[in-house]
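Exercise 7.
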Amino acid sequence: MEKNKSRLDLLRDRVEDLSIASRRYQSLIYFVWFVFVVVTYSLMIGLNLFLSKEVEISSTKIQSELDFGSTTYVLLDRNVNQKEQSATFVLGKKEMDPVYEERTWHVSVDYQNGSDDGQIQTTIYQGENNFTYIQVEGLASEWSGLRVELTTKSDVQVEEQSDYIIVGEKDTQSDPIDFQNETEVEVTAIDYAIEQRNAVIADNQTVIKDNEEEIEKSKEKAQLLETEMDYQTDAQKIETQNSINQLNERNRQLATTNYSTEKQNEELQEQIEKLQEKVADKKNSTK
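Solution. The predicted structure, written as tokens, is:
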């Protein structure tokens, strides 16, 4: 027969029962709080996806490079007028390629949030070094962004190559677009070819100047080393003479580089003069 518990034992049992119940209740509170946090966080994320502002479209910037296989073009200008439903894009080759090539272009346009009234027509003119002017008309009247895919192929390429230009609605213009005719594009192309050559000449001049400064410093250093040889042992003189020979060899290399760079500048300057004659003839032909 079970012995009757004392009042102290009964009190201890009661306290233990309350403690167990309290822990269970506390665990339940923690569980409910965890579920509440997870559900609330999930709802906030879901609502944010539906209520947040539309993602801003990042337009292709001027001077961005477009790669078509082994050929790289630079986006020189971009004009888009949504009201006129038209756009122009001007591309220039990054490199001064002396080889003339026949190049074909195809243009397609995709819209973000676009209306269904677009039916594009393109006009494409090319000039010096395959400088390319692309005129697009008949764009959709409403859109928040457009993707202009350019596909091109030259007579020296086996396959077509594509790249694209992105334009967001915020980067459109309200002023009318000044369309160019073929002669105007040819003149602009020649001007761009002249600018390219002037830029190379300027870079070459910087290289020549830097090389000349290095040559002068090397000459001064070599003179100091020669002076020190009067106070050196035979072994030291051999090491010093080796250093002098290295400086002199470096100076000869820099002088050779400067000579070839100066010759390149002379050639580029002559090309510029010929291009200037060509652009003058183009302009005179339109008078």
